[in-house]
Amino acid sequence: MRIQRFAVIFLLSLALAAMSACGSKGKSKDLDDTVILYGQLIRWNEFEEALKYRDPEYAKEHPVSDSYRKFLKNITVTGYTEKQKGIEPDGVSAFQVVEVRYYNVQTARERVITNRQSWRYHEESNRWLLYGDLPDFAAK
């Protein structure tokens, strides 16, 4: 009987330890999933959907103009390569650096830009949000 109780307590302790370990890895896994999905949207030129990943407060302060939305229709992303990514020590801020290759129909040129992204974990919605803009395809 004692051994059974000990085994049950040991297994419960082990399960709780595993769950807490998953919790600390959870944000990291969520960040990986989020930046992968965001990157796929950019790769497939789904800019309107990618804009939904922006932090709502940031988006309110920095709206995307109608003229820039029209400009984006001339952009075809030809490559999107992650160069660097990490979570800051605070656990709620992260960054990603990507190389974006794109073709602009108006200029008939392919260009390469480096896009530095800031991500923040939004506790209320339990998800990572982009604190910034889409890659700057209009940069010279």
The CATH class is identified as Alpha Beta
Question: Element order, helices and strands?
Answer: HHHHEEEE
Radius of gyration: 21 Å
Strand content: 25-35%
Shape: globular
What would the CATH topology be?
A: Nuclear Transport Factor 2, Chain: A
Largest sheet: 4 strands, antiparallel
Summarize the structure in words.
The protein is an alpha+beta fold. It has one domain: Nuclear Transport Factor 2, Chain: A, CATH 3.10.450. It has four helices and four strands, in the order ααααββββ. It has a four-stranded antiparallel sheet with strand order 1-2-3-4. Strand 3 and strand 4 form a beta hairpin. The chain starts with a helix and ends in a 10-residue tail after the last strand.
Helix and strand arrangement:
Elements: H1 2-43, H2 47-50, H3 56-61, H4 66-72, E1 75-87, E2 93-104, E3 109-122, E4 127-130
Antiparallel strand pairs: 1-2, 2-3, 3-4
